[in-house]
Amino acid sequence: MKHLKALFVFALAAVVSAPAFAETQNVKVSGSIDAYWFYRHNYDLRDDNDSGAAPAGTSVQSPDHSGNNVHRSEGDDFFMTITQIEVSADLTDNVSTVINLINQRDWNATYFGSDDDASYDEFVVLLDLAYVQMKEIFYSPLTLTIGRQDLLFGRGFIIGWNPQDPKFAIQADEYTQIQSFDAVRATLDFNPWTLDFVYSKIDENSHDPEDDKDLYIANINYKFAEYNAVAELYWITENDRAALRFTGSDSQTRNNDTHMIGGRVQFDPISQITIGGELAYQFGNYSADVDSPERDRSAWALDIFAEYRWDYEWKPMIGIEYVHLSGEDNVGVGTTDEYNAWNGNYRGPVYGWIRDYQEVYYSTSQSVDQIAGQNQQHISIYGSIKPLEDLQLSANYFYFWTDEDVHTTPGDQSSPVLDEELGHEIDTAVIYNYTEDVTFAFYANWFIPGDHYIEENDATASEYISRVTVTF
Which of 47, 141, 321, 345 shows a CA-CA span of 20 to 30 A to 373? Predict the structure, then answer.
């Protein structure tokens, strides 16, 4: 077995290193500059406490100013710039490479939250993409992509996003443009069938494989000849031995392994209508901490949507979508009950620019508020028009409610249950294409808490963003 492994490593090294001596046929340099201005008000859902957005995992400041995030305003006001340079090269024998370098920074910011001593590398240039792609390698339908790359399958409902802010240089981490995976991807194109097999190293920690997080993907896609129809089936496994690593003589490493099976269908019954749906099931195991018993996973996710596009000069479009992300009502650390909360670490679509990041990046003032992206259902109605060729107006309305009960005392099933209504969100956008290379945009978003949030924790959160994008 050792000789076989050594032979495989040698062959892979030979394949990767061979293009280094290949002749360069074409080199393209491109890039972009995105400049943002943010204003956020009552992101913690608490009014009159002189605090804006609080980092997830920290305590929200109370009205008597006894919290640990000391501000002098209900809002946050800051600027951010993201700059990218990408170099792509076509080599001989169907070999190509891509390197993307990025700097993302808040303008002259010092820290976010209570960590006054944090040292941030504001002007550091980071590696976003770095991969080599070899088409028709060994076998004409096979394409092999090795290195740091973006991954998106279907509409991104399961795999599409891997957000990173390595230098903690931006406050609005949900707007990071570093979303890549360190991965090896093999794609077999048997038109109309496409088969993808991916291995990705999510977290290495030490070089001991017992503290890693690895992602495995097998995806089968079929494109029909009519109705712009597509069908997908997939199996995805996240082996997580990193979250609950060995921490001491009295503890042990716990695995949080998640296996997903699912499928997606989408088609246009007529050219103006698109209908689609996706259903996924998770199983595996879950542990709340290294000393808690292991629980079996059993979770569901469902996405159903429909869109209608008018054949009119303004190009109006309207859509409706329902999303179900299952939840767990018993979050006690000592229970062995089945764990039903959805694990959506790599989901791409944003379901509310404010709601989707509550308890992910930002704490709310409700102490038992659960992380967004699980134990949640919502229905959304969205639409857009283009009154001018270069101007687009769009809006999205969301109504959120819980899937399972949320108790006022986590783990105590006899404690009172909070109302299921999480709230409403309205997201709007105005986008103006000044030239082919320059775009101006303005976004205004509001989250209105529902009865799930008790008094003093139910202030409306708002966000206003202007953005200028230049591409070259």
Answer: 47
- Over the stretch 200-256, which tens digit does the pLDDT of each residue have? 999 998 887 778 899 999 999 999 999 999 999 999 999 988 777 665 555 566 778
Phi, psi of 130 (to 5 degrees): -165, 90
pLDDT at 344: 93
| CA–CA distance, 425 with 142 (Å, rounded to integer) | 44
* pLDDT tens per residue, range 411-467: 888 899 999 999 999 999 999 999 999 999 999 999 999 999 998 899 999 999 999
263 Cβ contact partners less than 8 Å away, ≥ 6 residues apart? 231, 232, 233, 234, 278, 279, 280
Judge: domain 25-471, CATH 2.40.160.100: yes
> What's the per-residue H, E or C state across the chain?
CHHHHHHHHHHHHHHHHHHHHCCEEEEEEEEEEEEEEEEEECCCCCCCCCCCCEECCCCCCCCCCCCCCCCCCCEEEEEEEEEEEEEEEEECCCEEEEEEEEEEEECCCCCCCCCCCCCCCCCCCEEEEEEEEEECCCCCCEEEEEEEECCCCCCCCCCCCCCCCCCCCCCCHHHCCCCCEEEEEEEEEECCEEEEEEEEEEECCCCCHHHCEEEEEEEEEEECCCCCCEEEEEEEEEEECCCECCCCCCCCCECCCEEEEEEEEEECCCCCEEEEEEEEEEEEEECCCCCCCCEEEEEEEEEEEEEEECCCCCCCEEEEEEEEECCCCCCCCCCCCCECCCCCCCCCCCCCCCHHHECCCEECCCCCCCCCCCCEEEEEEEEEEEEECCEEEEEEEEEEECCCCCECCCCCCCCCECCCEEEEEEEEEEEEECCCCEEEEEEEEEEEECCCCCCCCCCCEEEEEEEEEEEC
Structure tokens at 110: 């010092």
Q: Measuring CA to CA, which residue among 452, 365, 463 is closest to residue 49?
A: 365
Longest dimension (CA), the chain: 70
d(CA 132, CA 378): 40
Sign of CA dihedral 421, 422, 423, 426: negative
**CA torsion 101→166→287→283, rounded to 10°?**
-20
